[in-house]
Design brief:
14 strands; about 475 residues; 5-stranded mixed β-sheet; Beta-Lactamase; alpha+beta; Heat Shock Protein 90; elongated
Length: about 475
């Protein structure tokens, strides 16, 4: 009821109203504090349990997404996501992977914050997220990598809210006919607005506990990095010891092996008339096997030397390197009947170890000529240029390789064929080639069609290339 004059309320009534207001306020505060304490205790307990499991298990993603508790137990959310190395593992109701990756990109300007929260993804971060308002209107994101888009994300759905306003702000106020008096009944009539594309807001407590969780995760990552560093040092020491043992053992084994081989030959030359045919066959087997054993030891020694050799990077002309390789292999090329050609132009100036580059090409070309059953054997050497990176290749029209054997062919002494097929050999060439490429900071891979041929590609470390090829 509106009055033209003031309405006086008795002192006793005002005192009672003040008392009731204070009592209600205290009860509300006490209830909020109790709920706050209970929720905070739940968050801290879940955080502690997750961190304890992360310390004990290697599969961090599994700890966060499987078993109890998991990410959905950490904060009040409808869905959660772990994104590591662009791989996404989801819990509950979440948007599709493509949208999650878009969200990660959109979060880049906020990466310095570590923890980002919004109750309106579509309005504040990514407009196209409005299509998934039922699952991703609210977002809480924790970034735990400085160099990659690795995130923990929690999602909340849209919550439609009706807000009551004292009057429509878009409508002018109403006055009396004479324009002297404001009419409150019509000027400030109840006006309701429906708020969309918003979720339940993230509380300050949730943000604080999430920041604490991020710090704990980073400490855990640093601790594991230290352990990995220690393991790497031990592995490097073991590798050097093993490499030294391989070199010494293979070198020292050659001398007695050479004696066995020579004595078997002497027996064949001096005593062949006194021996049975079976004994002669056995001596021939000893000669043949000792020769093969010597070949294996030579390959092992060569592999060890290549592993121990210091890199001597110089500006070298790859054309000269390849021509030297072809001259060195001229006799073998003529024997096999293969035609080796250089396709296009090779880099005239590459920062690389010329000796190692020569060894790589030599092993790949020999491999291409050996495993070829075509009447006209073709071997091509070339280089591809893409985005300033040079990729060398050796292509053949040989027997090809089944995809399931792509890894096996790089294993030391591993052969896919019988010993006497395709000219024998020890099966060390591709292993040595891969080792040398890796030592140069590059990588080696292949494409192959069984029966049609193979192409072996290798690249050197990017900053070792000053000028590419065409």
């Amino acid at each position: 009821h509106h009055h033209s004059g003031p309405k006086h309320v008795a002192f006793e009534i005002r005192l009672v109203c003040e008392f009731l207001a204070n009592m209600v306020s205290l009860l509300i505060s006490e209830k909020e504090e109790r709920e706050y304490a209970d929720y905070r205790l739940k968050l801290k307990t879940t955080q502690g349990q997750l961190l304890e499991r992360m310390l004990q298990e290697d599969d961090v993603v599994g700890v966060l997404t499987k078993g109890q508790p998991n990410l959905l137990d950490f904060v009040d959310a409808q869905g959660a996501v772990v994104m590591v190395n662009d791989e996404i593992t989801a819990l509950g109701e979440t948007p599709p992977p493509d949208l999650i990756r878009q969200l990660a990109e959109a979060l880049a300007p906020h990466s310095h914050e570590g923890v980002f929260a919004t109750d309106s993804v579509a309005k504040q971060l990514l407009p196209q997220a409005s299509a998934f308002k039922d699952v991703a209107s609210g977002l809480l994101a924790l970034r735990f990598s400085a160099s990659k888009n690795d995130y923990l994300m929690w999602f909340r759905p849209e919550v439609l809210r009706t807000v009551n306003w004292s009057g429509d702000p878009r409508k002018p106020v109403d006055t009396s006919d004479d324009g002297q008096r404001l009419l409150p009944r019509t000027s400030f009539a109840l006006w309701r607005e429906t708020v969309r594309l918003k979720s339940k807001p993230w509380s300050e407590m949730e943000l604080r506990v999430t920041r604490e969780f991020r710090v704990a995760i980073l400490e855990l990552v640093l601790r594991r990095a230290e352990k990995l560093g220690e393991l790497y040092d031990k592995l490097a020491t073991s590798y050097l010891e093993l490499d030294s043992f391989t070199y010494v053992a293979s070198h020292d084994l050659k001398e007695p092996l050479r004696g066995i081989h020579n004595y078997a030959r002497f027996l064949l030359e001096d005593c062949v008339g006194y021996l049975q045919k079976e004994d002669v066959a056995k001596l021939h087997a000893i000669v043949r096997l000792s020769r093969r054993m010597e070949g294996l030891l030579d390959s092992l020694l060569h592999y060890s030397r290549m592993s121990r050799r210091e890199l001597e990077t110089t500006a070298c002309d790859v054309n000269v390197v390849v021509q030297d390789v072809l001259e060195m292999l001229q006799a073998r090329t003529q024997e096999s009947g293969a035609k080796v050609t250089v396709v296009g132009h090779l880099p005239e100036k590459a920062n690389a170890d010329a000796f190692i580059l020569s060894e790589i090409f030599c092993n790949l070309v020999v491999n291409a000529m050996k495993y070829n059953d075509k009447p006209e054997k073709q071997v091509e050497i070339g280089c591809l240029e893409e985005n300033g990176n040079s990729t060398f290749f050796v292509r053949d029209n040989g027997i090809g390789i089944e995809p399931e054997h792509f890894d096996e062919i790089f294993v030391m002494f591993k052969r896919l064929h019988a010993l006497q097929e395709f000219g024998g050999g020890t099966g060390a060439g591709l292993t040595i080639a891969r080792k040398l490429v890796q030592r140069s900071g590059g990588r080696i891979w292949l494409e192959s069609v069984p029966g049609a041929g193979s192409t072996f590609y290798f690249s050197l470390e990017k900053d070792r290339q000053e000028r590419g090829c065409t």
